[in-house]
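CHAIN AND CONFORMATION:

***
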Amino acid sequence: MSALDLAKQLIQTEEGLNLKIYPDSKATWAIGWGRNLSLKGISKDEADLLLTNDLKGNQEAVDRLFSDSALSCMGEARQAVLMSMAHQLGAFGLSKFRRMIAALDQGDWVAASQEALDSQWARQTPARAQRAAEVLKTGKLEIPS
């Protein structure tokens, strides 16, 4: 067994696994097998992996809200906006947009856009909500480079 493998086993035994952030013995925020978030943080690759995993759950949340036919009529851009909303608001938060969801289900893109903007979310993050509402209305998503 390599020193790397031995060190991994030792750390796993000594640290224990915590899947949520916690204050370590020095009141420093840590996660996992003792990753010091204040000192080391996470890498871009780790952040991308977390986002990819989160998006799977966001997509499942969107899929639960709509029929397959409604999703196919919506197109990829509108679905992407809904996944982004689920990421920001949580699946439960997205599910509270009942009138927007009903409008999307009926293919009424203008009403869906208006309902998205008629929300506390839009008042709290107006620029983001405006961009999302435009995609809900037009079905076109352009990511700035």
